[in-house]
Design a protein that fits this description.
The protein is α/β, with parallel strands linked by helices. Helices cover 35% and strands 22% of the residues. The longest helix has 23 residues.
């Protein structure tokens, strides 16, 4: 039997606490990680809802992206400000057209510094429109008619609606994927110390994401959907996939190409989710890194349990387990990151996503095979 002792919100085995030096070392490590999280959260001013204000008369640069949104957030009282951090029982839908500045740096978001439109320098919302469910379905079907593909992004913890919209715009611009970009935004509080509330809001959104996946995969023109979940959004993604499997919706599951980046999921919970979902084709890809500080903090907050985004592919047992679960563990630790927490490396890999979108090419090349492999930075240089 495992005997454990609580220290604050962290559980440590009793034998680890028998040595005072061990207690001190563990406590200092926990304090250091929490301080890093606090400092990283305080770096720089976060964008307000004013960045969502449309500028229909702005002289747009050559590049624009059209983003479709489905959300379980409550609509803002002033609809021009998008959606709030509060929960809404009914799904809401919208369309955003965003211009990309000519000198855009891949992996970055050139945030508007004022309410004045500067599309030659900043990401700029040219138009956003609230949609009905029927209009959302119709536009997705029409937009996917040529490529037959869609790409859905599920954001993680501590993300505001505007941050999610601009992030998927950046990913779409940098990856140049052919699939219709869709954002599923759940009601994150966008506050660093609201981890538990965010987890509950993600749980609240499971049925919503399941419904949207069934909507999108059910469109006649959609043959495949690249489903990308980051961090806590990875947990939400897995829960929706589990629900599809329990409902026997094989048709929807067959159209999904699933990628999780730094999933914030307890390793045992992840295993039960995978078991319920069953094998996917192509194999699910899980981007992992052992030096992800955000996941280290999450691990400390949740009983010192290993997170799925920290799986160690140098461990033969881990790789063998991944093969049995038909999962590719891709270690992306080699990618440099400007993110102090090393939790958002996926944003620098966008140039690779177009290749990942093509299921057959990935499988035939041997890249998308179950097991474990290290990501080579040169792969991200693909045009």
């Amino acid at each position: 039997m495992r005997i454990a002792v609580y220290v604050g919100n962290v559980i440590f085995p009793q034998q680890e606490l028998a040595d005072p030096r061990r207690v001190l070392a563990v406590t200092l490590r926990a304090i250091s990680l929490c301080l890093l999280l606090f400092v990283a959260a305080g770096c720089g001013k976060r964008p307000g809802t004013e960045v969502l204000y449309p500028h229909p008369d702005a002289a747009a640069p050559a590049r624009t992206v059209t983003i479709y949104v489905a959300t379980t957030r409550e609509p803002a009282e002033n609809r021009i400000e998008g959606y709030t951090r509060e929960r809404e029982d009914e799904l809401s839908y919208a369309e955003f057209v965003i211009s990309i500045p000519p000198d855009h740096v891949p992996g970055e978001i050139e945030w508007p510094l004022s309410r004045k439109a500067r599309p030659d320098q900043d990401f700029t919302v040219l138009r956003h429109t609230a949609l009905s469910r029927a209009a959302f379905d119709s536009r997705i079907g029409r937009a996917a008619r040529e490529s037959g593909k869609a790409a859905m992004f599920v954001h993680g913890f501590n993300v505001s609606f505007q941050e999610a919209v601009f992030r998927i715009a950046q990913l779409s611009a940098d990856s140049n994927i052919s699939g219709v970009p869709i954002l599923f935004s759940w009601p994150s509080q966008a506050r660093i110390f609201d981890y538990v509330t965010d987890k509950e809001s993600a749980t609240f959104s499971r049925d919503g994401l399941t419904d949207v996946l069934q909507q999108v995969t059910g469109q006649p023109g959609v043959r495949s959907v690249l489903l990308f979940g980051h961090s806590m959004g990875g947990w939400l993604t897995m829960e929706a996939l589990r629900q599809l499997s329990l409902e026997g919706d094989v048709k929807a599951l067959k159209k999904l190409n699933v990628i999780l980046a730094a999933p914030d999921i307890d390793e045992d919970v992840f295993a039960t989710q995978v078991d319920a979902i069953g094998p996917l084709d192509p194999p699910m890809m899980v981007m992992v890194s052992s030096d992800d500080y955000a996941l280290r903090v999450s691990r400390l907050l949740q009983g010192n349990r290993q997170r799925a985004g920290q799986f160690d592919i140098t461990d033969p047992e881990v790789v063998e387990a991944a093969k049995k679960m038909n999962i590719l563990l891709l270690d992306i630790s080699s990618i440099s990151s400007t993110d102090a927490l090393r939790h958002s490396r996926y944003t620098a890999m966008a140039s690779l996503y177009k290749e990942l979108e093509d299921n057959d090419d990935m499988v035939s090349s041997g890249f998308r095979q179950a097991g474990g492999r290290f990501f080579e930075p040169a792969q991200a240089a693909s045009p």
